[in-house]
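Morning, I've got a small favour to ask if you have a moment. I've dropped the whole record in just underneath, so have a look.
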Amino acid sequence: MTRTVVVGGGIGGLAAALALARRGHRAVVLERADEFAEIGAGIQLAPNGLHALDLLGLGDAVRARAVHIDELRFMDGVTGAHVASMPLTGTYRRRFGNPYVVVHRGELHRLLVDACRRSAAIELRTGSRATGYSQDGSGATVLLDGGGRVTADAVIGADGIRSAIRRQLVGDGEPRVSGITVYRTVIPMERVPEELRWNAVTWWAGPGRHFVHYAIAGGRYLNLAPSVENGVTESFAGVPVDRERVRGAFAALDGTAQRLIALGEDWKSWALVDRDPVDRWTDGRVTLLGDAAHPMLHYAAQGACQALEDAVVLGDLLDDTDAIPDRFEKYNAERHDRTARITHAARASTRLWHPAGAEAKARNEMLSALSGTDLHDHVAWMHGAREFGTVGARP
């Protein structure tokens, strides 16, 4: 039985602790905030993410709280025309073994926190900000702000895109700013006209911008997330923005899309950031997980799913204390190709959503010619994974 310090009390860190506990190990989760809480709005979970949650014992609870989506709907944001839809019901669910769902990020986080609290093998500590780590042949230590130290057999850095553990382990500086700003808000569903209450994740694609919306919290709210390529060069997160500024940025979109954006209030903005994939995110008895290891743009809707997959693989691999460095190397090797491919796919997606003129017309013709089976084939390597190592990394 090993004892592991998990740095970061978000979705990935809590999932890692659960995965370890379910394999008979102990975990201490260090959260820098004064409480275990998750901000944010909607989160999409494809079947691979739900399969990981099934293996952690939380699949049923998540499915019970989630909105089960009928289709991914692609709209021409300028003309308002429906271009294509990927059906997510019968054939899709049978093929990939789970539905495609959306859930409020806070709800998923609470389920993970509660599951950790029920486990005698998991200790949750708040107010514990990590600054780095040290290690020797027998263990690894997390160094805390203020001089504290927490020592165990291993350390997992799950402390996000600006991970203190990554800063020491990889040392690749600040995240890459994509030049894209995303605006987010959530509105009560009763404010949405009934004819626009689609049970779909819907994209409105326009020149240099697109708009995504879907229901969350059991259908009680609509999550709005328009993005624009505006050349932003500095990172910022959660900055309030005037609703008229948001509306102005998407004035080129169809009237229906504008009607939905106009419903939004209390908008906040983020500069989208990620990092280039790296070959190594493991150092002896220390490794990284989730956004600390392979942060990606949210456009593939796989960030949380990949963190959950990481957790399952680590839980399956970790064995006795002497084997930890080798096991972490194997985890790194098994997860690298898949996560790198998804990182690049998320970046490349804007080439599908943001063209204008003749390029947009050609895109629409290409997408509208695809059958539901064609679209399922396109995402099978990602959504259909049941083993989360190198499986699915290549077509």
User: Anything to note?
Assistant: The two ends are 37 Å apart (CA to CA). The chain has 13 helices and 20 strands. The first helix runs from residue 11 to 22.
